[in-house]
Amino acid sequence: xxxxxxxxxxxxxxxxxxxxxxxxxxxxxxxxxxxxxxxxxxxxxxxxxxxxxxxxxxxxxxxxxxxxxxxxxxxxxxxxxxxxxxxxxxxxxxxxxxxxxxxxxxxxxxxxxxxxxxxxxxxxxxxxxxxxxxxxxxxxxxxxxxxxxxxxxxxxxxxxxxxxxxxxxxxxxxxxxxxxxxx
Length: 183
Known about the structure:
The chain is α+β, with helices and mostly antiparallel strands. The protein contains three helices and eleven strands. Strands 1, 2, 3, 4, 7, 8, 9, 10 and 11 form a nine-stranded mixed sheet that branches. Strands 5-6 form a two-stranded antiparallel sheet.
């Protein structure tokens, strides 16, 4: 029976089990997960938080990570400023990036999701408001969500991947993992 693990990756943890070639020691998955034979199904940037799926099944790993399967990934994104309808419409239609036009993203402004505290905290500026978005994409380019929000004039301050397909972080604390049912 294939194994699937849901992990709530804290900020500054690499999405791999080793850190080769770095002059300094950085946190990796091995600092949190001691399960032999599982590997990440996709990646999550070191400066991003949230759901990372790990499995010991190559076909399942491909189904989760390969963009051709268009598995939706939902992010809670704190951005600088207050996006207007024009910025939201661009995200919803697709944003032109250096590597081409993105697929449309389901995008909505949401109230503060009251997540766990981040370490280090997001820099607060009295003169610059921030806004939370729920953004769902079905592709996975390098740093895509950050590049999309920056392209519409609202740089990302905090990025938390909340769900991948039907799997979500609901009830899973940062740095913790659990076994999941394969759907």
